[in-house]
């Protein structure tokens, strides 16, 4: 087998392959042999114990070598990862990858290459790191119907939101702390703007609904606009704000929505207790009911654990002359636009405290067919605030209502708007 | 395929096979056909929609019929389930079973029959119902080392302990409520004495440590002795009492312990929040770190979901002419006796409040090499109570210490002893 990339994850894969060589051989039924490691630069000092001649900068030559039957890709990013994986798969090799961005952008091309070459494409490490999640979704739940997936799938943003919740810190301060501790990158865009979570949401939705989904189809909002006041006000009401990846089937089962955005969830919800950089995915299936999978979503060793689990599986498959589950897109359901997604909203309005204000606000909600669950007035006089939580409505109706509120003369400002999930 | 048993789980399996016939066929690549259902009594009114001629009381004939390639067993118990499964497997059929008692008593015989016939033996539903747990353990973590498994795997006892914790009820009252609500059987022995959990612990330990384990090797204590006072005193100290199935590798990795007993866990532990009849299994692996799997551990539809997931897998394997993972016992580690298990203890002593009492108690702990973490004296005079939490020590040393305490003249009574888990 060959390894593409020798960074944080790759070096852990090598370490574990050494340390557990005996166990892996027993579990597979044959020993694993590392035949080459593709790196960008030769001669760099690396914290791994392998013969220097195994390193090569010619990844293309490595993935087409005849003596290699399995390729592990942990480079990340779209190119050259895509070309290398496609070349390996087309050439009949099996591939284990942790590359969520590539799978979410062009998974179909990878599966196609795997079918051509009759090899395996496994990618457990691509979503929620060490948590066994994709295998359960595509195998254990193969006899069930997934209604909804609610996931905390990005450790960086969960760390930031958890700090804001427990210490009252601002987004900027919490981000800075996350960067100092290595939980966030110098350029945190992919995490805080939800791109990373959106790629994972696309992969989860594809498996859950047996349909093809790309990251471009995922509605995406990040957490940069969340203020300490939003977090405190959620706390007051018994909620906590989390960045969620949500896949939800429509009521008629003919389409589904996929979205990533911050949302308020009740503190009693199992996801509310997911602290620091941990990940957790909550799955609601028709027969199985509510399930939750919890663990470390990132890091060298946890991700390497998932990669090695896949490696054992594809190696066993090769020995048995068989393949694991292929892409399953038979349902071919449509992704419905965000406007058709049914959700609920928490909205805080700065209003003038005078008679008739509530009536005019309520009238606007009614006009858009949005039913109000609770209203609370806080403060009075010039500082009066209306806090409203709606019943379920389409996102389009909720957005139109928020638009209308902003134009209402008696509304000084729409202080915050946040979707509410997990309490229906 | 054939179904053995048409009770709570079996009838849900039939219902779901009907309702999801199209999906199952698409996921497998071929339609499933139910060729027979073995029942104890013919002609009984059943809540399933199948042709009456499919029912038979001759299960033995059914499992050897040539036109049947997959057998689902949901009868439970040792016989006739064992003979039927062995006959089916030896005859080359694949078997899906939810039978934890049989697997924990004689799993080796079933695996042997599966090898002879080259069929599959799948049993995801046997532990923690709908929660995908066995597949993650034996496949996703195949490249990792499991250090410890802490599981709430019996819904009945979790319901009872949760009621005692939230309402202050006695064991008897909580049991009665559980019986009224259908969470406990009229004869609750298998649940409250830990037999059910012990069978599951044996299955989990076997998979986690790649060794053969039977229920007889599991140290087992039930929850019938737990008093409302124990529960309240745990609560005071920030703990909650749960019946845990624990599989833990020794520090040198050469053996492991398997046990089922009530234990105090900190309220901050992810398992502490598992309410009512839910199940959850907490796994600590060397590379993956802490993982938790949560969901419904019993019930017709959840168990049927797990059975159908396995059914899809074995059907796919048959179409591909391959087999799923075989029994993995290569590590062949020994189960060490309970006395060698390392754990911690919480003990409450009724003592006389006079000088020198603590010194004599402390001396006894020291004599047995048990180090004390905290001591708290409550009350005074005749009602004085010493509450001691130890550091980690072998169960043998802890037991000898408790024995010694009972014989100490200054100790009026050992009011409660409870192991402490999950905070190291």
TrEMBL record, chains A, B:
Gene3D superfamilies: 3.30.70.260, Dihydrodipicolinate Reductase, domain 2, NAD(P)-binding Rossmann-like Domain. Catalyzes the conversion of L-aspartate-beta-semialdehyde (L-Asa) to L-homoserine (L-Hse), the third step in the biosynthesis of threonine and methionine from aspartate. It catalyses: L-homoserine + NADP(+) = L-aspartate 4-semialdehyde + NADPH + H(+); L-homoserine + NAD(+) = L-aspartate 4-semialdehyde + NADH + H(+). Pathway: Amino-acid biosynthesis; L-methionine biosynthesis via de novo pathway; L-homoserine from L-aspartate: step 3/3; Amino-acid biosynthesis; L-threonine biosynthesis; L-threonine from L-aspartate: step 3/5. Its cofactor is a metal cation. Belongs to the homoserine dehydrogenase family. Residues 346-419 form the ACT domain. NADPH binds at residue 100. Coiled coil: none annotated. This is Homoserine dehydrogenase. NADP(+) binds at residues 4-11. It is an enzyme of class 1 (oxidoreductase). PROSITE patterns: ACT, HOMOSER_DHGENASE. It comes from the Bacteria. It holds the Pfam family Homoserine_dh. GO terms for biological process: methionine biosynthetic process; threonine biosynthetic process. L-homoserine binds at residue 185.
């Amino acid at each position: 087998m060959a390894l593409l990339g020798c960074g944080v994850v790759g070096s852990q894969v090598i370490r574990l392959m050494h340390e557990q060589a005996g166990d892996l051989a027993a579990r597979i039924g044959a020993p694993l042999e590392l035949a080459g490691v593709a790196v960008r630069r030769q001669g760099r000092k690396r914290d791994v114990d392998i013969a220097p001649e195994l390193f090569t900068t010619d990844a293309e030559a490595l993935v087409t070598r005849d003596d290699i039957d399995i390729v592990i890709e942990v480079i990340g990013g779209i190119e050259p990862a895509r070309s290398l994986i496609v070349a390996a798969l087309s050439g009949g090799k099996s591939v284990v990858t942790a590359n969520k961005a590539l799978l979410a952008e062009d998974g179909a091309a990878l599966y196609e290459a795997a079918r051509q070459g009759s090899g395996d494409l496994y990618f457990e490490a691509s979503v929620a790191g060490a948590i066994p999640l994709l295998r359960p979704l595509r195998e254990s739940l193969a006899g069930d119907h997934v209604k909804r997936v609610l996931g905390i799938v990005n450790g960086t943003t969960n760390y930031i939101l958890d700090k804001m919740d427990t210490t009252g810190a601002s987004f900027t301060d919490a981000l800075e702390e996350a960067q100092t501790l290595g939980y966030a990158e110098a350029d945190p865009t992919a995490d805080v703007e939800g791109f990373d979570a959106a790629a994972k949401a696309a992969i989860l939705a594809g498996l859950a609904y047996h349909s093809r989904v790309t990251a471009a189809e995922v509605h995406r909002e990040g957490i940069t606009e969340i203020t300490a006041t939003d977090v405190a006000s959620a706390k007051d009401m018994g909620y906590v704000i989390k960045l969620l990846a949500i896949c939800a089937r429509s009521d008629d089962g003919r389409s589904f929505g996929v979205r990533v955005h911050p949302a308020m969830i009740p503190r009693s919800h199992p996801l509310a207790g997911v602290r620091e950089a941990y990940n957790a995915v909550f799955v609601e299936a028709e027969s199985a009911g509510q399930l939750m999978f919890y663990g470390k979503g990132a890091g060298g060793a946890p991700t390497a654990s998932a990669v090695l689990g896949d490696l054992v599986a594809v190696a066993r498959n090769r020995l048995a002359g068989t393949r694991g589950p292929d892409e399953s897109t038979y349902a071919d359901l449509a992704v419905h636009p965000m406007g058709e997604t049914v959700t609920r909203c928490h909205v805080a309005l700065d209003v003038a405290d005078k008679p008739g204000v509530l009536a005019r606000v309520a009238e606007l909600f009614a006009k858009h067919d949005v039913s109000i669950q609770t209203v609370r007035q806080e403060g009075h006089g010039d500082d009066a605030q209306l806090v409203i939580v709606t019943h379920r409505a389409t996102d389009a109706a909720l957005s139109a209502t928020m638009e209308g509120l902003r134009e209402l003369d008696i509304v000084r400002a729409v202080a915050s708007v946040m979707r509410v999930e997990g309490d229906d």
